[in-house]
């Protein structure tokens, strides 16, 4: 006989780890005990050496689906003479406890809801240790039912028996419930006929009838309508005041996804993953979907049902549904029943409500395959707050407040970076309150007391003000430049500290010289950066307004960048400017009035889209670039000319020749599929050329890509290909978004490095 003491760290609580250990010990004839402590699971065992070895092997190999084992420590000790194996009372102290994020309904639970002999037949709140709600219902840790919104539901005898049986799939499943004791759903609205019929069947009937239904999902309300019904989709757009921007769809099953799109293997895996994100995929030409779902795009965002409520509804409906956040454009997603009925009353014809409260808002997550890697574009339900493991351990907690757009915050504790869920654009009071609520929840759940507070350099960002007003005057404030933070975010994900060539291409970021940066090539490590190359500055005529009006940006480029003799070549374009506006713009340009300078790569894409007449005015951010990518043919390998100019110690990328060639070709009648693709190829080409020059001078082999422009799959694929072909090692995002949604991770790591190096 031998004795062992084992400690397991990682996500090992709230995932059925103790019953798993219990079953394993029983099977190998071992005695002893298992218990949770605040930070880990502890096991003591007596048994035969062979049985103990087998136990250790299976502990790692067969762990429950939601568990993530980071470390197993094993210590030999003399046998204690245990008589049996037991699960003993938890020893909870203050401290860290890793719980998995909300997880899609597992196969076993799904099967139960479809079996008329089961007591949970058609029950929309079925869940178990391997699936169901988590962070959307947790008010505090340690994780148990008393500290969730399930508190008000007293378990019935049947549920309690499952909850207390270590051999049951629902042993200590905190949200366990059944029709006899748990939450229930009902239909509310003007069409309520008071018949008390099955709410899901009635909801599906309304949807088939072209109505808009607000339904209470996992992390907030969603608005649903028939995705094949033009009128329903158009009505939803106008009521929600969301124009142009694509809607996501929920489809009943994988077969439906294949009917509408052409998923790659990686995309199919993402679709079926337990995070169940919205996956952006190439649509089939023949896909029968209302054109208003995703106008001007060659992709659709699809997701599969992820709660029993969704499964049952989609089963009744038997087709694709638009499934979008339950909010007015730009506001946070609604979570409370009264709140939803009030805020969404003008949008929805009916409400599918239920009485399990949502404690924290989590939007649906969005992923896209970029250069072969499925990457989050919006990181929320299913992903947050799963920590990103960092290659260092800090004794001082860090808070990074993120950017103004697509805001997330990030908390660092020990070696873990906890990136909060997608909050949205910090432009209104509601979103700011959402930010503050979510931050307060995380600080409480994870016992974080930030001593270092990182923020953007932009003085007018609301997040910068939040950092300055943070109620701890003793905490150190560190301002991190926007594009430096982008580059550090991708470095941190890969655990890379040594200097890299950082390519940060996005729409807007505050530069150290007060101009608007966005086409930046840096040499950077965590604490320092040098701006070694950037896109040539162009005037933004009318400032911010140029973002919504790509034709203004094009005029700025024509007058400010493609100067002199070439300008007459563009006369046919400038003649298309609205006449009154043209005079004003020209005056603004000459007097340098309200014309900030920008090196933004996002704006350069806008210019190309405007010149090609793909998009002259944008109704949502990034629309011009997204549509330009949609028309480009990836088989084209043409590249337009460009210039790389030497300036002091660095380089300026001058795209004047590119735009001239683009415009000439367009005027000559070359198809958009060719010109748009050649433009993408050119951006990849000049970027790789600049990296090559930096490699020669700085002896760096590693390139890190970040920034919103790298949500563009064609650009990302082209650039990665080109760089790898010339021997560069390329780092791209995997765990956090390349856009500003991932910025807070870079801010946190950069601020930690800056604060601890001085
Ligand atoms: Zn389950
Ligand atoms: Zn029950
Ligand atoms: Zn950015």
Task: Describe this protein's structure.
Residues 3-89 form the Acylphosphatase-like domain. One of its GO terms (molecular function) is ligase activity. Belongs to the carbamoyltransferase HypF family. It catalyses: an acyl phosphate + H2O = a carboxylate + phosphate + H(+); C-terminal L-cysteinyl-[HypE protein] + carbamoyl phosphate + ATP + H2O = C-terminal S-carboxamide-L-cysteinyl-[HypE protein] + AMP + phosphate + diphosphate + H(+). This protein has 758 residues and is an alpha/beta fold. The protein has 5 domains: 2-87, Alpha-Beta Plaits (2-Layer Sandwich), CATH 3.30.70; 99-182, DHBP synthase; 185-364, DHBP synthase (Alpha-Beta Complex); 368-499 and 742-757, Nucleotidyltransferase, domain 5; 533-681, Tetracycline Repressor, domain 2. The chain is built from 23 helices and 28 strands. A hairpin with a 2-residue loop joins strand 25 (643-647) and strand 26 (650-654). Bound molecules: zinc ion (3 copies). One zinc ion (ZN) is lined by residues 482, 486, 506, 509, 707-708, 740.
Summarize this entry quickly.
This protein has 758 residues and is an alpha/beta fold. The chain folds into five domains: 2-87, Alpha-Beta Plaits (2-Layer Sandwich); 99-182, DHBP synthase; 185-364, DHBP synthase; 368-499 and 742-757, Nucleotidyltransferase, domain 5, CATH 3.30.420; 533-681, Tetracycline Repressor, domain 2.
């Amino acid at each position: 006989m031998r004795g062992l003491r084992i400690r397991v760290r990682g996500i090992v609580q709230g995932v059925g780890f103790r019953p798993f250990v219990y079953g394993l010990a029983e099977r190998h004839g071992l005695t002893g005990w298992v218990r949770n402590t605040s930070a880990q699971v502890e096991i003591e065992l007596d048994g035969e050496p062979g049985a103990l070895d087998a136990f250790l092997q299976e502990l790692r190999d067969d762990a429950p689906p939601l568990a993530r084992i980071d470390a197993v420590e094993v210590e030999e000790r003399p046998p204690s003479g245990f008589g049996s194996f037991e699960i003993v009372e938890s020893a909870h102290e203050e401290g860290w406890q890793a719980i998995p994020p909300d997880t899609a309904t597992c196969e076993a639970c799904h099967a139960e809801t479809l079996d008329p002999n089961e007591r949970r037949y058609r029950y929309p709140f079925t869940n178990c240790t391997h699936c169901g709600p988590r962070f959307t219902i947790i008010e505090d840790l340690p994780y148990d039912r008393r500290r969730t919104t399930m508190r008000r539901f007293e378990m019935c005898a049947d549920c309690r028996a499952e909850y207390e049986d270590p051999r049951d799939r629902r042993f200590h499943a905190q949200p366990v419930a059944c029709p006899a004791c748990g939450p229930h759903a009902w239909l509310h609205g003007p069409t309520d006929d008071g018949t008390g019929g099955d709410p899901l069947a009635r909801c599906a009937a309304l949807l088939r009838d072209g109505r808009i239904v607000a339904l209470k999902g996992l992390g907030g309300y969603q608005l649903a309508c028939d995705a094949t019904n033009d009128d329903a989709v158009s009505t939803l757009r106008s009521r929600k005041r969301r124009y142009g921007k694509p809607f996501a769809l929920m489809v009943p099953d994988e077969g439906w996804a294949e009917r509408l799109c052409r998923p790659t293997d990686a995309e199919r895996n993402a679709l079926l993953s337990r995070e169940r994100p919205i996956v952006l995929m190439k649509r089939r030409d023949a896909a029968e979907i209302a054109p208003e779902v995703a106008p001007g795009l060659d992709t659709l965002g699809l997701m599969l049902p992820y709660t029993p409520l969704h499964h049952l509804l989609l089963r009744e409906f038997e087709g694709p549904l638009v499934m979008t956040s339950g909010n007015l454009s730009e506001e946070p997603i609604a979570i409370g029943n009264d709140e939803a009925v009030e805020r969404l009353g003008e949008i929805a014809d009916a409400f599918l409500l239920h009485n399990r409260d949502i404690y924290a808002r989590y939007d649906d997550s969005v992923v896209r395959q970029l250069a072969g890697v499925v990457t989050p574009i919006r990181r929320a339900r299913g992903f947050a707050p799963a920590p990103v493991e960092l290659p260092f351990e800090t004794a001082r907690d860090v808070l990074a407040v993120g950017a103004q757009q697509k805001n997330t915050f990030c908390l660092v504790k020990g070696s873990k970076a906890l990136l909060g869920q997608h909050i949205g654009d910090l432009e209104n009071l509601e979103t700011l309150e959402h930010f503050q609520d979510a931050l307060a929840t995380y600080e409480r759940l994870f016992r974080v007391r930030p001593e270092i507070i990182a923020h953007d350099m932009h003085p007018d960002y609301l997040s910068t003000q939040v950092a300055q007003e943070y109620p701890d005057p003793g905490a150190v404030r560190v301002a991190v430049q926007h594009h430096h933070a982008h580059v550090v975010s991708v470095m941190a994900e890969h655990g890379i500290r040594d200097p890299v060539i950082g390519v940060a291409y996005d729409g807007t970021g505050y530069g150290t010289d007060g101009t608007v940066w966005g086409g930046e090539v840096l040499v950077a490590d965590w604490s320092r950066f040098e701006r070694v190359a950037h896109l040539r500055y162009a005037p933004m005529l009318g400032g911010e307004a140029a973002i919504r009006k790509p034709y203004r940006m094009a005029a700025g480029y024509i007058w400010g960048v493609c100067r002199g003799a070439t300008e007459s070549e563009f006369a046919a374009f400038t003649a298309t400017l609205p006449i009154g506006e043209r005079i004003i713009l020209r005056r603004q340009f000459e007097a340098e009035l309200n014309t900030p300078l920008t090196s933004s790569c996002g704006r350069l894409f806008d210019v190309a889209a405007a010149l090609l007449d793909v998009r002259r005015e944008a109704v949502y951010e990034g629309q011009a670039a997204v549509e330009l990518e949609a028309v480009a043919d990836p088989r084209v390998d043409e590249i337009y000319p460009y210039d790389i100019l030497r300036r002091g110690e660095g380089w300026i990328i001058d795209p004047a020749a590119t735009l001239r060639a683009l415009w000439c070709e367009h005027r000559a009648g070359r198809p958009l599929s060719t010109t748009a693709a050649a433009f993408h190829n050119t951006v990849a080409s000049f970027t790789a050329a600049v990296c090559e020059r930096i490699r020669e001078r700085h002896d760096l082999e590693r390139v890190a890509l970040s920034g919103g422009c790298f949500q563009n799959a064609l650009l990302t694929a082209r650039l990665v290909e080109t760089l790898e072909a010339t021997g560069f090692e390329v780092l791209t995002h995997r765990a956090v978004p390349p856009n500003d949604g991932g910025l807070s991770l870079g801010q946190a790591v950069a601020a930690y490095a800056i604060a601890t190096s001085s």
